[in-house]
Structure formats: C-alpha cells, structure tokens
Design goal:
The chain has 156 residues and is of the alpha/beta class. The chain has a single domain, classed as Nucleoside Triphosphate Pyrophosphohydrolase. It has two helices and twelve strands; from the N terminus they run E-E-E-E-E-E-H-E-E-E-E-E-H-E. The strands form three sheets. It has a five-stranded mixed β-sheet with strand order 6-3-10-7-12, with helices on both faces. The chain has a four-stranded mixed β-sheet with strand order 1-8-9-2, with no helix packed on it. Strand 4 and strand 5 form a beta hairpin. The protein starts with a strand and ends with a strand.
Amino acid sequence: MSRTDFYEDPNAPKANSLKVAVSALVRNEHGQVLMIHRTDNGKASIPGGGMEFGETLTQAVVREVEEETGIDVAVTGLIGIFSNPEHVIAYDDGEVRQEFSICFTADPIGGELRTSTESKAVGWVEPGDLVNLDIHPSIWLRIERGLEGHAEPYYT
C-alpha cells in the first residue's frame, strides 16, 4: 500500500485514524545506523511500523526491525514519543493517520541484512552520511534525538 506524508501542510487531509507505531535507532559496533529505503513512500528511514494485538511495545520493535531488515535486536532504551498532529500519513485506502510513534534504541544481536516487502534497500550508514539521504523530517527528529543521547526521553 502506498502512502503520502504531509508535514506542516495546511492543505493536508484531516486525520481519521490513530495507531500506535514503534521505531528503532539501531547502531552496530562501529556506530553505524541501520537504515531502510521504504517501499511505501520512497524515503530513507529507521525501521519501524505498527504495533499488533498481543504484543508489547518492545516485542513490536523486535518484530518490525527483523521483518524489515533481517536483523535481530535487543531494545536498550527509549528515545521518545513522537505525536505531531501536523504530520499525517494518507494511505491509498482512504486512511489518514496522525503520527504517533514511540522510538527506541536497540542493539543488533544477530540476523543478516535483507530486504522485505516494506524495504527495497537495507544497510548500515555512517551517521555523517545520513544527510545525503532523503529522510522525512519526523524521522530526522528521532535520529537526531537518538544520536544526541539525551538522558530524558523526548515527547510532545
């Protein structure tokens, strides 16, 4: 399913749904960041997605990272709660979702890089090279907060 992100756009459609989502800033032993190239909006992103019934937030993180990248992770911390009503995501089925994502840090503990139906490219990226990627501003905020290593989580 394709999607269109609207960010601080006065012409954006009105949200008609809200779903708990998770994302993870995963860094390897070299400090590189695990990034995907999303199939639904064509942008670079940290892995993440919607929470499913019957799982905890951290189980959702572990599942989403593995599904999108092939990498198994252990959740290590909380970056923050991102709930900007000025960021809505319109899907081709008519759903217009207000952003609501809880972002964590995680360490890789196994697996091998691979793509999925949600990721057309997956790889480890040097933090200094992230500026060369097409990353949505809401994802940039998560990455920046995670790389800065604040003691307190971010929230809106």
